[in-house]
Amino acid sequence: MSLKDAYVEKLKAQLDEWSADIDVLEARAKKVDAELRVKCDEQLVVLRSKRDEAKVRLKEIQESAGDAWQELRKGGDEAWESIKHAFIEARKKFGE
User: Fold this and answer.
1) Number of domains into which the chain is organized
2) What is the pTM of this model?
C-alpha cells in the first residue's frame, strides 16, 4: 500500500468515526430542553460543515495525480485539526 493509500484510508476511517459521533450527538440533542437544544443544534451544524469540508479535502487527495497529493495533505491535515477541535468543543457542550 502506498503512502497516499494509507493516508486516504486513515482519513476515511476518521470520517466514519466522526459521522457516527454526529449521529450520537444528534440523538442526545433530541433529549435536552429547548434552550440547550438550540445550542446543540448550532454545534451540530458546525460539525456537519467541518465534516463536509474534510470530505472535500479527502476527495481532492484521492483524485490527485502523482506526488501532488503531498501538497494537498497540508490542507487536509489543517481541516482534520479543525474538525477535531470542533468535536472537542461539541463534547463539552453536550456534557461528555
Assistant:
1) 1
2) 0.77
What is the domain range of residue 69? 3-93
Please name the residues in contact with 70: beta carbons below 8 A apart, sequence gap of 6 or more. Answer: none
Tell me how crowded residue 1 is: count the other CB atoms within 10 A of its CB.
Answer: 8
Burial 66-78 (b: 16+ CB within 10 A, else e): eeebeebbeebee
Cell of residue 56, nine digits: 472535500
Q: Per-residue pLDDT tens, the chain, 96 aa: give them.
A: 788 889 889 989 989 998 998 998 888 888 878 878 888 888 889 889 988 988 888 898 888 887 788 888 877 788 788 888 888 888 787 765
